[in-house]
């Protein structure tokens, strides 16, 4: 019989060193818990975090999402204070671009209410104001979104769109470095990070977490596990034997982002991040005089669900590249179109309502920070606080019936003092109405 070696013992094992796991590890280690972070990959943030567009925006219909984004924005814009110093390997920067959601003005009402309630600066721009402020952008109405082979793709504009503009929106210049910054901060509080360490089994006893087994056969003992496994999070819940007991599950979804040269007038203060449901795309200025292009799952595009998150293909396809870049070229007619695809493919970890799962799991000691649905890079700073708070509020040793109750319905954001209903992020919630990454 092979004897397994125990190579570690901690209060908490965090599975996954993406932006979420690193943020959680920082918060927990800073509060005095011993933490080991394990990741199958080579370094912090090498998973889906490295592919992130890293946009920080406040356009959400669910007010709790706005509050999470606004609270995290305070961390991104005060980064040295957030991580408690300066990482010698470099610090991420917040690039303020402003952000504009295009649409008919009556569709902004709920978002305007949310932004107003939190005191977030915003303005509804008329088509003429869009043309003046952002001359590269044509606010004509072309929608609904169409596929490239649909004759409707190149239809003439048939009306005009308004824009809900938030001047504080922006993006983080290097999402992978952001995870590394959190790792550095967590290590200063004693957290240990182990790479090339894939968890292949979860040890439980009588409904309680005992630890994990790694692919090399070694064990790490811990009474608390945090599932921050990104697109492999549902697979991890299966390892823990709990996936079928969670109403809300997540699935890996393939997505692509591309880059194109920026048109002449899309630079400096005349460039902004744009959410464009009319054409089904999103884009923002990119460092180096480029435009970074992504998609927002318009109904005409088939969703590409992936069974095995470990067999991911990172190459962009010609079809997605042409579709996404040409959609943006409709919105910015001067956009130069590259001759060949340039971009990448990556995975979202998508729940049925495109909101994350931030909750306790169905066994004692398991916590869930997953299902981030292509929109939770921005909220990682506050998610770290939420998971710490859930752990602090959940004494170990509770029985199954206690765990299924929802004792902690609210959370107060640490920087802006908003009260969040954690029920919206529960693993047993009734799914909300969102159908795309906009959530
Ligand atoms: C293309 C793209 C664009 C995006 N754009 C935005 C945006 O503009 N704004 C925004 O807010 N959000 C955006 N997102 C979403 C955001 O980037 C993600 O929500 C976030 O990065 C997820 O971080 P994570 O730590 O949960 O996952 P990941 O970064 O994927 O990290 C999970 C880690 O877990 C490890 N792991 C998994 N299973 C195991 C196991 N069994 N054992 C050991 N390790 C394991 C993996 O190796 C991986 O490193 C985007 C995402 C993508 C893919």
In short:
The protein is an alpha+beta fold and 439 residues long. Helices cover 24% and strands 25% of the residues.
Structure, explained:
It is a single chain. The chain has 439 residues and is of the alpha+beta class. The chain has two domains: 6-85 and 174-250 and 353-425, 3-Layer(bba) Sandwich (FAD/NAD(P)-binding domain), CATH 3.50.50; 99-167 and 253-350, D-Amino Acid Oxidase, Chain A, domain 2. Helices cover 24% and strands 25% of the residues. It is built from eleven helices and 24 strands. It has helices spanning 19-30, 48-51, 63-76, 79-83, 109-118, 127-133, 175-188, 233-239, 318-331, 380-392, 400-404, and strands at residues 6-9, 12-15, 35-38, 55-56, 94-96, 99-103, 123-125, 162-166, 170-172, 192-194, 199-205, 208-214, 219-221, 224-227, 251-261, 273-276, 281-286, 290-295, 304-305, 343-350, 357-360, 366-370, 410-412, 419-421. The strands form five sheets. Strands 6, 7, 8, 15, 16, 17, 18, 19 and 20 form a nine-stranded mixed sheet that branches. Strands 10-3-2-14-22-21 form a six-stranded mixed sheet, sandwiched between helices. Helix 1 (19-30) runs parallel beside helix 7 (175-188) and helix 1 crosses helix 10 (380-392). The longest helix has 14 residues, at 63-76. The radius of gyration is 22 Å and the shape is globular. The N and C termini lie far apart (51 Å). The model has no long low-confidence stretch (mean pLDDT 95). The structure holds flavin-adenine dinucleotide (FAD).
